[in-house]
Amino acid sequence: MGCRTLQLVCLAATISLAAPASAEDQITGFVTYATGEVTGRVTDETGKPLRATKVHAVSKKGEQIVTTDNDGRYRVVLRGGTTTIFVRGVVKISAQTTVSSDAVPGEELVEIREHIPPAVLPKALTDRNKIPEYSKTARDRSVWTKAWLMLDVSATGAVKRVKLLHAPGYDLDKIAVREAFNLRFEPARDRSKKPVPANMLWSFEWPSYFWMLDGKHMFNRLPREVSSVPCRGSGPGRVHRDCTTYDLAREQTAPWLDPPKK
Fold first, then answer.
1. Which CATH number fits domain 9-115: 3.40.960, 2.40.300, 2.60.40, 3.30.70?
2. Are 2 and 108 in contact, with CB atoms under 8 Å apart?
């Protein structure tokens, strides 16, 4: 069986959270369509291996998590189909696997991928604390709810596509998607300062309408007092905040949504 080496540009996502972000809030990774197994290495930006780092492999069949060894190396047995490999943090992650050649039956290609995060991540030009409009259902029921979205941000800083990773419900889904397309960013830039596309996570939050009313808060912006409200399920209390986090497994199953037709 023959074997050739193929250098591929990876379909990669560098994802930044909408909240004030630490290094752990960043996600670095790539997508592979191979089967069998993928092996690789995780290092910091200087090339130093990162041991005991969790590597996530997400496909429609679920999520696997493996840990790097003392040399920063990892191994994941792929389950077939599209698989997203990612690590939390601003790191370098490389990978190598074999894929069947379409050109020569029975021949394998060695697929090599390496992704380095952009030197500059996208910067929001929209107020991160903005609250989209309330639906009548959300207002009348005075629920506290949240939306998580994956944004496909172009090299011009415009949102081209959206995935709804966590739906807020209460007739707010369409509002969240519509508002996501209105967001604008300074685009990500590579190490040559060239604008490049990137994927980002973004959240919208709607506090309880009557909690906002009782506190005499403006209905279009998250007040500072939000941070002192206990999360839902954390214990007794009159009002609980929705502290739902994003589910990256949904990134595999949720469809990309195009801008609403005007």
1. 2.60.40
2. yes
